[in-house]
Amino acid sequence: MIGFISEKLLIPILDFFYGLVPSYGLAIVALTVVIRIALFPLSAGSIRSARRMKIAQPVMQKKQAEIKSKFSGDPKKQQEELGKLMNEFGSPLAGCLPLIVQMPVLFALFATLRGSPFADVPYNINLKVVPQDQIATIDPKPYKSPRHSIFITEKSHFPVIATIPNGTKLGTEDSVKINLQTTNGNSYSEVLSKYDNGSKFLPTWKVSKGSENIKISQDGTVTAIKPGDATIEAKIPGLAAKSGFLFIKALGQVGFYVDGAINWDIAALVGAFGLTLLLSQVLSSQGMPANPQQSTANKITPIMITGMFLFFPLPAGVLLYMVVANIFQAFQTFLLNKEALPENLQKILDQQLLAKNEVITTSASTISDKRLPFEPNSKK
Question: Which of 29, 111, 200, 201 has most Cβ atoms within 10 angstroms of its Cβ?
């Protein structure tokens, strides 16, 4: 499903925006905004539900405890009263359904930005070498990798898969060729020969694991050496992997710290992600009564996630998408927080805010009462 959404929906939108403004950086920004606008009703449902639950949760928890205590001997009545409570305030799970529905599109968008043309595309193939006298007992099962759309020019791209007709198990001293081909069955190398710059997109082959068990040539031919497991990586260059945008040196660049050098553009993107995430959380708490536990979580979560992404290998193009998505999310949260609440929830919120103000006033009065009065020095 994710591959289908990427190929049939996201990449055509990407092509459209690149046709308007020939910049893959701007195309990422435009694609992100379009998808976020399309998903606005779903994400709005989640934001509304979260806002209402923040207000209703203390009251719901209190009433749930009262219902369970009052009808502890009558499970049927207890469920009936709990159902009425949910109808009054809504279910805490109501905000999860919109998130689940939009997940395939967001995963597809994420996968699209991690692939061609924004980054080099790896095909990782796990192989197993077995003794020659055992290979005859193994039923060969053809292997087919997930497909990836490969951009050869700004307007020419097609899905490519890796295949092994006899499967991923080899006998010692056997050789097998890994084929890269389009989903129509055409050889990838033959398709490339039709383009003037096609040779730039030939794959590089390497053994990423188990080099003592197999070897591979640059035409994709694998030769088994001895029994064991191994992994082959075929990597196809991304058309725009080295293209820059604003302060970003390369959209396909991965890693904050590489080969002893700091990539400051990656650091800036990660920092912007953390700030926009914090902004979104601050906006979601506006007009709400103070919750010390939630406040602490809101401060720690952006720091933890931001720290993780400093060392999590994401291409710069993906980080750009995440920053733009956070900005859109913050704006959406700001707008939805201006909406009027249902009358019952507004009444509860007013009571919570009044109680909060009374606590602040009482605390200030107590501190003032504890201050020592000023006593001027008496003259003798």
Answer: 201
Q: Which residue has the tokens 């606008």?
A: 37
The C-alpha atoms of residue 305 and residue 326 are separated, in whole angstroms, by 13
Distance of CA 136 to the CA centre of its chain: 44
d(CA 375, CA 318): 66
- Mean pLDDT per block of 10 residues along the chain (380 residues) reads 71 79 83 82 75 72 71 72 67 60 73 76 88 80 87 84 87 86 87 86 89 87 87 87 78 69 79 82 66 61 71 77 85 78 67 62 58 50
**Closest Cα to residue 162, out of 152, 172, 148, 175?**
148
**H/E run at residue 78:** helix 75-89
Q: Model's pTM, two decimal places?
A: 0.64
Structure tokens of 54? Answer: 């923040």
Q: Which of 236, 225, 164, 156 is nearest to 200 (CA)?
A: 236
Supply 207's token pair.
Answer: 């053994």
DSSP 147: P
- Helix 264-284 and helix 316-336: axis angle, to 10°? 20
Q: Which amino acid is at 39?
A: L
Distance CA 20, CA 321 (A): 19
Residue 77 Cα distances to 46, 68, 70, angstroms: 30, 10, 10
Q: How many CB atoms lie within 10 A of CB 16?
A: 13
8 Å CB contact between 160 and 182: yes
Determine the number of helices (DSSP H) and then strands (DSSP E) in the chain.
11, 13
Q: How many CB atoms lie within 10 A of CB 152?
A: 21
Name 242's Cβ contacts closer than 8 Å, sequence gap at least 6: 250, 251, 252
d(CA 368, CA 349): 29
C-alpha angle with apex 305: 303 to 308, nearest 5 degrees? Answer: 105
The token pair at 272 is 């912007």
Q: Helix axis angle, 75-89 relative to 40-70, nearest 10°? A: 140
**Strand spans (E) along the chain:** 121-130, 143-144, 148-151, 157-164, 169-171, 175-177, 179-182, 204-209, 214-216, 221-224, 228-236, 257-258, 261-262
